[in-house]
Specification:
Elements lengths: L1 E4 L5 H13 L3 E6 L4 E6 L8 H4 L4 E5 L19 E3 L6 E3 L5 E5 L6 H14 L3 E3 L17 H14 L2 E5 L3 H10 L2 E4 L7 H8 L5 E4 L6 H13 L5 E5 L17 H8 L4 E3 L1 H5 L2 H14 L3 E5 L17 H17 L7
Parallel strand pairs: 7-8, 7-14, 8-9, 9-10, 10-11, 11-12, 12-13
Antiparallel strand pairs: 1-3, 1-4, 2-3, 5-6
Helix pairs in contact: 3-4, 3-11, 6-7, 10-11
The protein binds phosphoenolpyruvate and manganese (II) ion (MN).
């Protein structure tokens, strides 16, 4: 059920509706919009009676939400969500006119490697830095990340370069630590249906970058996001990173057709990761261009100062000069669509 408030409804009217929802044992999710506030209701097992809410002051109408996912859906919020990242003043907004550029190595390997990467991507125009301190690896014998030491290096990068930090959290316990250092919590493809992690990041004050699982349908992807919003964290950024198909010419098949589909169904922003989406350095720039052309709100790209020596995802990591070229090209494509890249 969705309660749509009248444009002139007061704060008190909104509060009274929320109190009524809570008194019935459900959860209220007020979603302010440019014209009016809508209040989503979750936690009810069966359908609710619209009349119960329509008589309250300030309520325009109460409507049943037809989709299984509610809070992420455009039925609940018609306008695009803008996600503000970073402390007030140093904020980057994801989902608006400006394209978000997140770049950096797959993993933080050393202070020097991470700092060199940060200087390069910052100079090329990225405002957000990526780098895993905790890596979910297919093999238990592969490099698992530097852990807290890696997070400390990321915090230094934030101070030194003014870059905002996007880094992965791999389980609910680990989240307590990652939260102390990150500006955005990344939930990786392998964890898209780790429901206890989704609930945990749903209680975080930080925005969440949720990557699509490698075999997840669009419904499953949006339901995973719904887990996060249902806990009260509405700052979710979706990310398409390629799915498994029979195609064996690339690591994954980057499903760019999901971008307009997400835009139709959800108000959440969606980024594209052409690095994991292709697995091959030479394919990253063409697919980055295509991602922006198809309407993505930005890109997350792996860049390494010395890709041939990268400890993880070496083949898909760009050389810094390639990242510079990528930025120039997506700037041109974005310009056609009225989108910009800030410096
Ligand atoms: C990553 O961003 O380095 C990563 C592990 O990505 P994914 O979860 O999409 O595989
Ligand atoms: Mn990687």
């Amino acid at each position: 059920m969705l309660i749509v408030m009248k444009p002139q409804a007061s704060e008190d009217d909104i509060r009274r509706v929320c109190e009524k929802i809570v008194s019935l044992g459900y959860r209220a999710h007020p979603m302010p919009g440019a014209q009016r506030t809508a209040i989503g209701i979750t936690g009810n097992r069966g359908p609710l009676e619209p009349e119960e809410f329509e008589s309250l002051p300030g309520v325009a109408e109460a409507i049943r939400v037809s989709k299984a996912y509610k809070l992420v859906s455009r039925e609940v919020k018609g306008e695009d969500s803008l996600i503000h990242v970073g402390p007030p003043g140093g904020q980057v907004t994801i989902g608006g006119k400006e394209l978000a550029l997140i770049a950096g190595p797959c993993a933080v390997e050393s202070r020097e490697q991470a700092r060199t990467a940060a200087a390069e991507v910052r100079a090329a125009g990225a405002r957000l830095f990526r780098g895993g301190a905790f890596k979910p690896r297919t093999s238990p014998y592969s490099f698992q990340g530097m852990g807290e030491e890696g997070l400390q290096i990321l915090a230094e990068i934030r101070r030194e370069f003014g870059l905002l930090i996007v880094t992965e959290t791999i389980d609910p316990e680990n989240c307590d630590l990652v939260e102390k250092y990150a500006d955005v919590l990344q939930v990786g493809a392998r964890n898209m249906q780790n429901f206890s992690l989704l609930k945990r990041v749903g209680r975080s004050r930080l925005p969440v970058l949720l990557k699509r699982g490698m075999s997840a349908t669009l419904d499953e992807f949006l339901m995973a996001a719904e887990y996060i919003l249902s806990e009260g964290n509405y700052n979710v950024i979706l990310c398409e990173r390629g799915v498994r198909t029979f195609a064996d010419h690339s690591r994954n098949t980057l499903d760019l057709s999901v971008i307009p589909a997400v835009k139709r169904l959800s108000h959440l922003p969606i980024l594209v990761d052409p690095s994991h989406g292709t697995g091959k350095r030479d394919n990253v720039i063409p697919l980055a261009r295509a991602a922006v052309a198809v309407g993505a709100d930005g890109l997350i790209v792996e860049v390494h100062p010395d890709p041939d020596r990268a400890v993880s995802d070496s083949y898909q990591s760009l050389y810094p000069a390639q990242f510079e070229a990528l930025v120039e090209q997506v700037k041109a494509i974005g310009g056609v669509l009225g989108r910009t890249i800030g410096q």
